[in-house]
Task: inverse folding
């Protein structure tokens, strides 16, 4: 027998072709020695050699050694870190609010939150050919990361971290942003779902009935807010108009701006500014409420403001009741009501305790200063409670007096201005002093002088002071 060796071009396979001519049969050890003499030292397949000799496979290439291909390294990756899913409560898990579903597709992140993990490339695994030589793998390529706006790398360089609260945006070019502005192209409806965002929100359409928009920053609605809830916790709300239908509320820490308010409930920490009519609405503003322009009319509803209520016309020729209250910070106003209510309740309880105390004291005097043990216990407790209650009443009376004094000092320039007409049916309250318009007044100015309401004439030169 005669053997011939063939090695593949990549050195990963070695074949032997055995020919029957040429003398004695070959042994396994002879073939192994032949392979070693020709440098074949790795991946020798002894079973294949044994099989070849047993079956006498002649003139056919038989694989007798196989190398190991190198395993190339894997490329690096950028893996977005998925937020933990909130489990539904027992009260809500059996109910699905379709207005909340779309919001789950928006990934809202908080400042300092890890938003992506950088997986480094691997170097691969070394291979070896049949000659025993190492075959180097091709290492993986690093992930192409582009840090966008408001993100940074962690100190170890393995994570991407949000610098601000906002919405996560992963772009096709590999960049990662966190945007502080959420843009809704269209209406807030079942397609967009309710909005709850830790930045600014811009809406190109309307906010449909029953939906809500809550934002830390400003909320801008290019359309109409219709019987919906819109809240800016630290900024202002601007809209084309607000149709409240006496449902929902529009609330801003700073200002609310619109071209009309209709059956709306609106609260602003500073100003409610309407370039048009305010109709049958409930308005509370820390500083001022203004209806300007040719259609700047306030008709119906109630307006509460700290310093100023101003409009072209206030009320209606039909005598629709319109209530205006100024000279109060709405929050202070609520606090005063709360203190007064508590004082009334405490005084009533004190009166009841005094009667009980007097009854028990009379009984004790008739019994030479003695009372049954249970009644003596009540007598002592009632006495201590009376002392505590009197102290509480005294503290709240002082607090109420200070609060009312501060308000009067702060809001002593409060005014109501009807630039053109004040109609009958308008009631104005300034520091609990009331004025009722029973007829039409042109260019009216209402203010408080010497603790009495005064009605005067308004002119463009009238000085109107409000806080900046």
Result:
């Amino acid at each position: 027998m005669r053997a011939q060796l063939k090695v593949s071009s990549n050195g990963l396979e070695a074949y032997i072709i055995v020919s029957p001519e040429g003398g004695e049969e070959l042994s396994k050890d002879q073939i192994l020695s032949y392979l070693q003499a020709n440098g074949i030292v790795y991946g020798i397949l002894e079973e294949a050699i044994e099989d070849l000799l047993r079956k006498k496979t002649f003139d056919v290439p038989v694989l007798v050694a196989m190398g190991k291909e190198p395993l190339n390294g894997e490329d690096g990756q950028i893996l977005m870190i998925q937020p933990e899913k909130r489990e539904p409560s027992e009260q809500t898990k059996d109910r699905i609010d379709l207005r909340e579903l779309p919001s789950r597709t928006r990934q809202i992140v908080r400042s300092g939150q890890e938003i992506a993990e950088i997986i480094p490339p691997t170097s691969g695994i070394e291979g070896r050919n049949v000659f025993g030589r190492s075959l180097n793998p091709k290492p993986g390529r690093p992930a192409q990361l582009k840090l966008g706006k408001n993100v940074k790398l962690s100190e170890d360089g393995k994570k991407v971290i949000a610098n601000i609260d906002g919405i996560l945006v992963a772009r096709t070019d590999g960049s990662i942003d966190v945007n502080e502005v959420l843009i809704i192209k269209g209406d807030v409806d079942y397609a967009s779902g309710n909005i709850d965002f830790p930045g600014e929100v811009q809406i190109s359409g309307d906010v449909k009935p029953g939906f809500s928009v809550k934002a830390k920053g400003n909320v801008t609605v290019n359309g109409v807010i219709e019987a919906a809830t819109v809240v800016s916790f630290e900024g202002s709300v601007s809209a084309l108009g607000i149709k409240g239908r006496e449902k929902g509320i529009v609330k801003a820490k700073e200002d609310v701006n619109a071209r009309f308010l209709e059956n709306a409930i609106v609260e602003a920490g500073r100003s409610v500014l309407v370039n048009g009519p305010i109709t049958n609405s409930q308005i509370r503003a820390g500083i001022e409420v203004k209806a300007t322009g040719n259609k700047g009319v306030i008709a119906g509803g109630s307006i509460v403001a700290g310093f100023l209520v101003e409009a072209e016309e206030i009320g209606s020729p039909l005598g629709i009741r319109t209530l205006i209250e100024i000279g109060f910070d709405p929050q202070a106003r609520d606090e005063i009501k709360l203190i007064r209510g508590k004082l009334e309740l405490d005084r009533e309880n004190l009166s009841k305790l005094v009667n009980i105390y007097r009854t028990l004291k009379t009984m004790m005097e008739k019994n030479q200063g003695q009372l049954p043990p249970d009644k003596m216990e009540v007598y002592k407790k009632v006495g201590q409670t009376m002392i505590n209650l009197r102290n509480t009443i005294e503290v709240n009376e002082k607090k109420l007096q200070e609060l009312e004094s501060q308000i009067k000092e702060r809001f002593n320039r409060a005014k109501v201005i009807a630039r053109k007409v004040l109609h009958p049916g308008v009631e104005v309250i300034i520091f609990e002093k009331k004025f009722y318009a029973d007829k039409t007044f042109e260019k009216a100015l209402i203010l408080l002088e010497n603790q009495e309401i005064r009605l005067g004439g308004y002119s463009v030169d009238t000085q109107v002071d409000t806080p900046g």
